[in-house]
Amino acid sequence: MASAPDASRLPPPTAPPLPRPALMLQEWRDVAFWHWPLPPEEAAPLLPPGTRPDVLDGVTYVGVVAFRVARTRLPGGVPGGGYGEVNVRLYSVDGLGRRGVVFLSLEASSAHTVLAGRAAAGLPYMWSDVSVSVSVGADGDGDGDGAAYATRRRLPRSPGPARGRFRLRVGDPVDDPSPFERFVTDRWGLHTHHAGRTRWVAAAHPDWRLYRASPLGWDETLLERAGITRPPGVPSVLFSPGTDTRFAPGGALPRHR
């Protein structure tokens, strides 16, 4: 009989307090998670210095996450607007045990978000056309709620467009998340390499309302353009109506040669 996953290998189920006052609030809506298992040795070269792949039962995961940012609020309550986003991400842990996300790419339909994210945090935002559509019976048979996401990068167009189209059918609510479902959703920050240092940005939000989902189709080049050979097999898919997330700087990691 297989042993139960070690709970110490999972992120905490609720967000730790932010280390500093929040600098940004985002309202995330209609969130879809697509995940494939990935050998840790394939993820390791793509992570910033001072971090390593976070693993669960010997594997890590690569994810494609798509959603609407319904609203952004910046310091002083300044509104930052909304947009569509599709990101490719890996899962990381640093020397202090902080488990987070590393973004390999973030497709966003807001040009000013792309510029600000690159300049302020070194995040690999790409200006793209992103669409999000949620409806009842989107699979055509009237059974369940469906969602569709599409993105196509505006620039650069060589050596071929970075694009993606994803469709899913929403199923039953997740009342008791599995270790895998916790591993890929209970992520309370991100690691990014900016201005010569690896930095931690903390995040906090209420618990996800998750639903299991069935993939109805996916066609994408985002993983390949991010340096990942898409693993074979059908991805694991989750859906959430969304949550409101606060971000705060968490400081730089020690320098690594």
Protein model, in words:
Helix content is 10%, strand content 51%. By secondary structure, it is mainly beta. The protein has a single domain, classed as Acetoacetate decarboxylase-like (Beta Barrel), CATH 2.40.400. A 9-stranded mixed beta barrel has the order 1-3-5-6-7-8-9-12-13. Strand 3 and strand 4 form a beta hairpin. The protein is globular, with a radius of gyration of 18 Å. It starts with 23 loop residues before the first strand and ends in a 5-residue tail after the last strand.
Short descriptors:
257 residues, mainly beta, Acetoacetate decarboxylase-like, nine-stranded mixed beta barrel, 4 helices, 51% strand, globular, DUF2071, ADC_dom_sf, DUF2071 domain-containing protein
